[in-house]
Amino acid sequence: MKSWYSKSSNNKIPLNNIIFYDGDCAFCNFWVGFVLRNMTSRKFYFSSLHSDFSRTFLNDYDIDCKAVSTIYFLENKRLHIKSTAVLKICKGLKFPYRIISFFQFLPKKFSDFIYDNVAKNRHILIQDKKDCELYENKYSEFFLK
């Protein structure tokens, strides 16, 4: 499996379980903090869609990081988007949050409809970004820049 050298932790990080998120969005940063506090032994890594890593990596998937309207999740060399990404991430969270992953049985059209409505209103739902830098400092080994 390919790996990426993390400057912040001086470790090679496997290119797996990476969450690509909008680093300028308070709701997205809240979500990153939630995942950090509730992940199981399955480790997730995070990369803001504004980072050099994301731009370089997602370019191979023909994704323009300037269009930051969704979340991406890389799992086992497969890139998931929108509701599928969220539900796959929930699978790696502590109980009771992992139960949310059971909603994968819902039609993708329906779960993406819910995701799109939350995404459209994400800047209204949470507006304060105060915790963002705190997470990047405290959990620096999980952030790819």
Task: Describe the secondary structure blueprint for this structure.
Blueprint: E1 3-6, E2 11-14, E3 18-21, H1 26-38, E4 45-48, H2 52-59, E5 72-75, E6 78-81, H3 82-90, H4 108-120, H5 122-125, H6 132-138
Parallel strand pairs: 3-4
Antiparallel strand pairs: 1-2, 3-5, 5-6
**Strand residue percentage:** 15-25%
The tally of structural domains comes to 1
Number of separate helices: 6
Neighbour order of strands in the largest sheet: 4-3-5-6
Find the structural class using helix and strand composition. Answer: alpha+beta
Number of strands: 6
Q: What helical percentage do the residues reach?
A: 25-40%
Shape call: globular
> What is Rg?
14 Å
The low-pLDDT segments are 1-10
Order of helices and strands: EEEHEHEEHHHH
Mean pLDDT: 80
Largest sheet: 4 strands, mixed
End-to-end distance, in Å? 20 Å
Concise structural overview:
By secondary structure, this protein is an alpha+beta fold.
